[in-house]
Design goal:
Blueprint (H helix, E strand, L loop, with lengths): L1 E5 L3 H13 L5 E5 L3 H10 L2 E3 L3 H6 L3 E4 L6 H7 L7 E4 L6 H7 L5 E5 L9 E7 L5 H11 L3 E5 L5 H28 L4 H22 L3 H8 L5 H11 L2 H25 L1
Parallel strand pairs: 1-2, 1-4, 2-3, 4-5, 5-6, 7-8
Antiparallel strand pairs: 6-7
Helix pairs in contact: 7-8, 7-11
């Protein structure tokens, strides 16, 4: 199977490296990026042939991974008309399946929603498919995504919500971790040591939640001993509206995603 990558930004790069790590002998990779040096550097690092144009990458491929910016999609799709009918894996942010079908009406199309943690093989990635995608093709897409973390199939109507809790939450979490480290810095601990402690605590808390199947509130209660320091911090978070701020931030992401999708449909 030959896979062509159109655009090789951070997520496409993570997928390419993931495929390369698994040493999948039956996959041959082609790639085009406007920054020629990026494609050539990848060709040296991975088993990938750098192409001189997106048309060349498409011509040599059975499967096309579109990893261009939303504003570049129309011009790229216009050049790739001959790829219609191939399996299209879209990493184009905010572009619905219906929008992609306007450009590739005869193609099986997978819409992929990863997050930045793909860089360390820890993304949680959403997958939406149009009705032309077969079960075999779904399995193929899943295998490709194994190299960047976990994945799950979702209904496209939940893409905005997934984009929030799957893609925007890392940004929220980084801000939270940094705030904890700043508080420790104020009390005299080095920032780097505080970041390590906070990050490991967040990682461990996520593992506990996933593996214990216990409600988050119950786990928080287990952490707070009567009259202890932790409960004082929890009460202060409640007082300052921590949960409300999270709800409003999530809603802002979902509304922005919904507005972008609506604008996309009108084009």
């Amino acid at each position: 199977m030959k896979i062509g990558f159109i655009g090789m930004g951070s997520v496409a790069l993570a997928i390419i490296k993931g495929i390369n790590r698994r040493e999948t002998a039956d996959l041959e990779l082609f790639g085009y990026d406007p920054h020629r040096e990026r494609a050539e550097a990848l060709a040296e690092l991975c088993s990938l042939k750098a192409c001189g144009s997106d048309e060349e990458a498409a011509e040599n491929s059975d499967v096309l991974v579109l990893a261009v910016k939303p504003g570049e999609l129309a011009s790229a799709a216009e050049r790739l008309k001959e790829a219609d009918g191939k399996l299209i894996i879209s990493l184009v942010e905010g572009k619905r399946l219906a929008s992609m079908e306007k450009w590739f009406p005869n193609s099986a199309i997978a819409r992929i929603i990863p997050n930045i943690n793909a860089k360390v093989n820890a993304s949680v990635t959403g997958m939406c498919f149009n009705d032309k995608v077969t079960e075999e093709q779904k399995l193929f897409v899943s295998k490709i995504l194994e190299g960047i973390g976990t994945y799950m199939e979702i209904e496209e109507r939940f893409a905005g919500i997934f984009g929030c809790i799957g893609s925007a939450v890392p940004a929220f979490t980084y801000i939270y971790i940094n705030a904890l480290a700043e508080a420790a810095l104020r009390e005299g601990m080095s920032k780097q040591k505080a970041l390590e402690i906070a990050a490991q605590s967040v990682l461990g808390s996520a593992e506990m939640l996933l593996k214990s199947a216990v409600h988050p509130f119950a786990l928080a209660d287990q952490t707070c001993s009567p009259g202890g320091a932790a409960v004082e911090g929890v009460l202060m978070l409640h007082k300052l509206g921590f949960e409300h701020a999270v709800h409003e931030a999530a809603l802002a992401v979902i509304e922005k995603s919904s507005a972008a999708s609506t604008e996309d449909e009108s084009i």
